[in-house]
Design brief:
mainly alpha, MetI-like fold
Length: about 300
């Protein structure tokens, strides 16, 4: 490691964020679990016993095998198989990767739109502020699921299931991202309204800096703390939205497993005794959302000295 890298690491270790993190056992445990799940999803092709996308590795005769420890189980399938004969452990690893990709992708889109519109509304004010905030108010009157259901249903009816399956990931990222930007925009706008009255902004204006430079290089860095908190929680919300849409048949198709589509695929087999097809992916989804929310709560408390009790 270079001297500059070591100095940055030393500064981080001395920071309040690191100090509060190493004293919070819940945050540490949540981070370890989340990091394990993210790494498992990233390296799914290396860790998964089988490739759920490869039809040559799927045998319908192995369908609905129970997890190891139950009668009729097969050691080759530790968590059992689904109704198509796919190894459930493999589909969960690949499905977690899809859910995380949609969650992070949607939040990146939310942040891009929210930061841009929030900066413009807060700094420029006047008619720009009124128009952007009224658009945000109208959009907030509709729930994410309602917008996603309408757009997804129209797209699916217009282009068919085959076309929808090919672009399902991008469609879900777009739908969830566009539906949730007003929350970030309002937060950024409120921060900008407070920051633009400070002396460093007046100094930048006197020095003749352009509006774009003042907004993005001077004001934006001082408004990032609440954005990090919102973005963390929004990742969990995006993953839940994807699971809900997949369960309704408007998300990922069963041929491209996500945690939501896995839960949906096994829902019809619960009463026949194959409970693991839905239950195990459901538990993984609950744990994933829980640890992200716990990290978001910790980050919120740390970045707000009025709330932090560490």
């Amino acid at each position: 490691m270079t001297t500059a890298t070591l100095s940055r690491w030393d500064r981080f270790r001395e920071s309040f964020l690191w100090y509060s993190f190493k004293r919070d056992k819940v945050a540490i445990a949540s981070f370890i679990v989340l990091l394990s799940m993210v790494l498992s999803a990233i390296f799914a092709p290396l860790l998964a016993p089988a490739d759920p996308y490869d039809l040559a590795q799927i045998n319908i005769m192995n369908s609905e095998l129970p997890p190891v420890g139950l009668d009729g189980s097969d050691p080759a399938f530790p968590l059992g198989t689904d109704a198509q004969g796919r190894d459930l452990l493999s589909t969960i690893l690949y499905g977690t990767r899809v859910s995380l990709l949609i969650g992070f992708g949607a939040v990146v889109l939310q942040a891009a739109l929210g930061i841009l519109f929030g900066l413009l509304a807060g700094y420029l004010g006047g008619r720009v502020d009124s128009i952007l905030m009224r658009i945000a108010d109208v959009q907030l009157s509709f729930s994410t699921l309602m917008v996603a259901i309408i757009v997804g249903a129209v797209f699916k009816a217009s282009f068919g299931n085959l076309m929808f399956g090919e672009v399902a990931i991008y469609m879900l990222i777009f739908i969830i991202g566009v539906a949730e930007w007003p929350q970030i925009a309002r937060t950024v706008r409120a921060s900008v309204l407070a920051e633009k009255k400070k002396e460093y902004v007046d100094a930048a204006k006197v020095m003749g800096f352009r509006t774009r430079r003042i907004m993005f290089r001077h004001i934006l860095p001082n408004t990032l703390s609440p954005i990090f908190v919102i973005a963390t929680v929004q990742i969990a919300n995006a993953i839940i939205s994807e699971a809900a849409l997949s369960f309704l048949g408007l998300g990922m198709p069963e041929t491209q497993p996500s945690l939501g589509s896995l839960i949906k695929s096994g829902f019809d087999y619960i009463q026949s005794g194959s409970w693991w097809i839905s239950l195990i992916p459901g538990l993984v989804l609950v744990v994933l959302v829980l640890v992200i929310n716990l990290l978001g709560d910790w980050l919120r408390d740390v970045m707000n000295p009025r709330l932090y009790k560490g």
